[in-house]
Each structure stands twice: as structure tokens, then as C-alpha cells.
């Protein structure tokens, strides 16, 4: 017998398996570099079989990117959406950087020179989307004549560089300092996103 009523339990099982795999790899990534973690260790920690891993993920990097997204979401630390001009960094940026700070060892590993290209691309893409939205909503003329995707790629790359440099510092400056650094890079020279007089 088939019908739509059967789909929700399947979706719940799929979500449960994915979440178990994500939590397992996130925990292992806190203990070891990603290249040292095996699929066997992930499935053992998750309590699922090896075929379940490959039903849901083609590789460890994609799983880790999803795991980091999920962990950030659970921490209430989604990257900020810059909808209106602000005088300072939004709370969501503090929350996200606090999440990075609490899991600094994992992020240092995945964002460093031997890190995960998949995770880096995921984070860069999220930052680029935020920058594009911020530029579009602010109506700033600062980037006239430049393609929006080029501007957002440049700004997002700079912000990601700031995050990497902050995580690498010993001792690491506070989250408040990092938020100020990232926010100033996102705004650009002279804080050009908000219209004049709105900052």
C-alpha cells in the first residue's frame, strides 16, 4: 500500500540519520583533523551502517559543511541578514562569531591552508549572499559600475580572511573585537553601505 501518509515517517528517519551523521562528524572534528577521521569512525559514532553514510553524503567534507551549518543554527548563530542600515554589528554576527569561538579548533582546521574547500565555499557563498542583499537594500552608490557578484565576492573574501586571521591569533581577541573587525570590513572604507546621515 502506498500513499502520501507514508512520506512523513520516511522524512523523519532521513532527517534523524543525517542529524546523527552530522553530530558524529562534528564531535570527531573537534577531536581530530578531518583527514584523520574515517567513514567507519563516523558511522560507528552515529550508530548507523556504512551504506547509510553513502545514501546521504558523497564525502566527509559535504557532511562537515552540513554539520557546521546545523551546529550554527542550533546555537542561534545564523549569519546575519543585513536588511537595514545599522550603527554597529547586528546581534546575529555576535552570535555567529561566538559559535566560531566556542568551536575554534574545528574552524581553524577547516578554514586553514589544509582545510576543507567545501566548507570554505559554503561559508563564502553565505557571506556573498548577505553582502549582495545588504548592497541592494542600502541603495549605496559606492559600487556603481561594478558587477554585484564581483563586489560581493571581494567583500565576502575579505570578511572570511578576517575570520580566519582572528581564529588563528594566540591569544584570540574577544568576540566583540572580532565582530567589530568583520563589520568594518563588510561596510567597506568609510562605512559606505548605509546612506549618508543614517549611520
From TrEMBL:
<keyword id="KW-0238">DNA-binding</keyword>
<feature type="domain" description="HTH tetR-type">
    <location>
        <begin position="15"/>
        <end position="75"/>
    </location>
</feature>
<feature type="DNA-binding region" description="H-T-H motif">
    <location>
        <begin position="38"/>
        <end position="57"/>
    </location>
</feature>
<dbReference type="InterPro" id="IPR001647">
    <property type="entry name" value="HTH_TetR"/>
</dbReference>
<dbReference type="InterPro" id="IPR050624">
    <property type="entry name" value="HTH-type_Tx_Regulator"/>
</dbReference>
<dbReference type="InterPro" id="IPR009057">
    <property type="entry name" value="Homeodomain-like_sf"/>
</dbReference>
<protein>
    <submittedName>
        <fullName>AcrR family transcriptional regulator</fullName>
    </submittedName>
</protein>
<dbReference type="Pfam" id="PF00440">
    <property type="entry name" value="TetR_N"/>
</dbReference>
Amino acid at each position: 500500500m502506498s500513499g502520501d501518509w507514508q512520506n512523513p515517517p520516511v522524512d523523519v528517519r532521513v532527517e534523524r540519520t543525517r542529524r546523527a551523521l552530522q553530530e558524529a562528524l562534528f564531535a570527531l572534528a573537534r577531536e581530530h583533523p578531518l583527514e584523520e577521521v574515517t567513514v567507519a569512525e563516523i558511522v560507528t559514532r552515529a550508530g548507523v551502517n556504512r551504506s547509510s553514510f553513502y545514501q546521504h553524503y558523497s564525502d566527509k567534507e559535504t557532511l562537515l559543511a552540513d554539520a557546521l551549518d546545523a551546529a550554527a543554527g542550533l546555537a542561534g548563530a545564523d549569519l546575519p541578514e543585513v536588511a537595514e542600515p545599522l550603527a554597529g554589528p547586528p546581534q546575529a554576527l555576535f552570535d555567529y562569531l561566538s559559535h566560531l569561538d566556542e568551536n575554534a579548533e574545528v574552524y581553524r582546521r577547516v578554514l586553514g591552508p589544509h582545510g576543507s574547500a567545501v566548507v570554505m565555499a559554503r561559508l563564502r557563498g553565505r557571506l556573498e549572499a548577505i553582502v549582495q542583499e545588504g548592497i541592494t537594500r542600502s541603495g549605496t552608490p559606492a559600487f556603481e559600475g561594478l558587477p554585484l557578484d564581483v563586489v560581493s565576492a571581494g567583500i565576502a573574501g575579505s570578511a572570511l580572511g578576517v575570520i580566519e586571521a582572528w581564529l588563528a591569533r594566540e591569544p584570540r581577541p574577544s568576540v566583540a573585537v572580532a565582530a567589530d573587525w568583520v563589520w568594518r570590513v563588510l561596510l567597506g572604507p568609510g562605512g559606505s553601505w548605509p546612506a549618508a546621515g543614517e549611520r
